[in-house]
Amino acid sequence: MADPAAFVRNGGSPGLSIVSADNPVWVTFARAMTGFVAATAAAVAAIVSEWDVPPRRVLDIAAGHGLFGIRLAERVPGAEITALDWANVLLVAQENAAKAGVTARYHTLPGSAFDLAWGGGYDLILLPNFLHHFDTHTNIGLLRKARENLGPGGRVIAIEFVPAPDRSGPPFPVHFSFMMLATTRGGDAYTEAEYEAMACDAGFAMIRTASLPPSPQTLVEFLL
């Protein structure tokens, strides 16, 4: 953070490859974030559990600590969760699944979301705190892959920090945008209009958003 002007000139931080395979930073991150995201994960699970047809087959991309899928498994008793992340990180998710008593319905898929075959036929694909690491082109490709792996009536949900259209606030999403500029090659905290454009390019019809108090995050639902 010593030379912020350099990040602006570079359009990102090419020297920091935190998404490299099996990077131990994500194990530390997964353990540290468990308490921070607990309320947000519970809020997402509460929303999804009220759907007319709750999901039965769920894929949690970049699951990390696993709480988004785990809380959903607690709220929707028939849901089978598949967590995708690096193998070393999935050990943390499995520990948390065991603590929650959902191990029998909690499965893992180790590897890269960009390289692996996901299996297809999912009722819900979760993208919690993932899209902000990448540029628009990369996200469109990932969202297209998500759409192709949905079953009939399936949905895709992202959990993100979404700034106002003019990026004047709220404070946390605006600050988070700078954090992504300083620590990723092309990531950002995207506005609602930017997610709408990505959704359209990936073959979705539209998006729908919902706030997730008390956190500063937003649920972004991609609709077919």
Keyword list:
Rossmann fold, 7 helices, alpha/beta, 224 residues, seven-stranded mixed β-sheet
Description:
This protein has helices at residues 4-10, 25-49, 67-75, 87-100, 136-148, 171-183, 192-201, and strands at residues 57-61, 80-85, 106-110, 122-128, 150-160, 206-211, 218-223. It is an alpha/beta fold and 224 residues long. It has a single domain (19-223), classed as 3-Layer(aba) Sandwich (Rossmann fold). A seven-stranded mixed sheet has the order 3-2-1-4-5-7-6, sandwiched between helices. Helix 2 packs parallel to helix 3 (67-75) and helix 2 (25-49) packs across helix 4. The chain is globular and about 50 Å long.
Distance between the termini: 40 Å
Task: Output the structural class.
Answer: alpha/beta
Strand content: 15-25%
Q: Main beta sheet, described?
A: 7 strands, mixed
- Tell me, what is the CATH class? Alpha Beta
Q: Choose one word for the global shape.
A: globular
CATH architecture: 3-Layer(aba) Sandwich
How many separate domains? 1
Q: In oligomeric terms, what are we looking at? A: single chain
pLDDT averaged residue by residue: 93
Radius of gyration: 17 Å
Q: What is the count of DSSP helices, taking H or I runs of 4+ residues?
A: 7
The helix fraction, in percent, is 40-55%
Task: Spell out the helices and strands N to C.
Answer: HHEHEHEEHEHHEE
Write the CATH fold name.
Rossmann fold
Read across the widest sheet, the strand sequence of neighbours is 3-2-1-4-5-7-6
CATH level 4 superfamily: Vaccinia Virus protein VP39
